[in-house]
Amino acid sequence: MKRASGLQRFMNRRASASHRYQPTCYEHAANCYTHALLVVPAFMGMALLHRRSDGGWQQLTALVYGLGLIALFLVSSVFHVISWKKSHMRSVEHCFHMCDRVVIYFFIAASYTPWLNLRELGPLAAHMRWFVWFMAAAGSVYVFNFHERYKLVELAFYLTMGFFPASVFTSMTNAEGLSELAFGGFLYCLGVFFFKSDGVIPFAHAIWHVFVALAAAVHYYAIWKYLYRSPPQS
């Protein structure tokens, strides 16, 4: 009983299906810091890829991927700060909560962009580089129309968009980096367990943030190592 009561200071009761979970002050702080501290590293990572780019197409791809990475951590941080410190700004908080969900779709599309743009694909698979952005736009429309109404459906959309584009990788003649991609996807899937565990596990959402950061780091490493090789020294 003492152990259970001790955890109550770090975790509130689980929310009902039609309501959002309300984190404790400790959880709010963890939610903010676990992504806010990654905004600058994400910007530096984008700059590094841009510097290693060989040509305009690689530079554009680095920009798209880097902005997706920065937006994920920045929007998440702003939303959690507003949710923590400005609880009276309900309309602003609601807007940033939707943006936080929307940016996940575009982050997934941006994460696939280097592989779809810089690897040789089959004729049908090549269309995926555009279709993945269509899926991101469709997911955004869903968020703005059904925000927080059907949480399991929304989760299914995220998982579908996360895994469906990977089907085209079978057409890649060069398989370098695919093991890192798979491992990063595995980390994302592990994190989903914590994403759905608010009110069950203390700091569940912050732990989800950590898994996102680890998975994004694995994917960044693969992109940096296999798609943006250092240009030969003259």
Distance between the termini: 69 Å
- Class by helix and strand content? mainly alpha
Strand content: under 5%
Secondary structure tally, helices: 9
Name of the top-level CATH class: Mainly Alpha
CATH topology: Rhopdopsin 7-helix transmembrane proteins
- What is the rounded Rg? 19 Å
Shape: globular
Detail the poorly predicted runs: none
How many domains is the backbone divided into? 1
Tell me the total number of β-strands.
0
What letter string, H or E per element, gives the SSE order? Answer: HHHHHHHHH
pLDDT averaged over residues: 86
CATH architecture: Up-down Bundle
Which bin fits the share of residues in helices?
Answer: over 70%
The main sheet comes to: none
Word description of this protein:
By secondary structure, the chain is mostly helical. The protein has a single domain, classed as Up-down Bundle (Rhopdopsin 7-helix transmembrane proteins), CATH 1.20.1070. The chain is 71% helix and 0% strand. The protein has 9 helices and no strands. The longest helix has 30 residues. The mean pLDDT is 86.
Summarize the structure.
The protein is mainly alpha-helical. Helix content is 71%, strand content 0%.
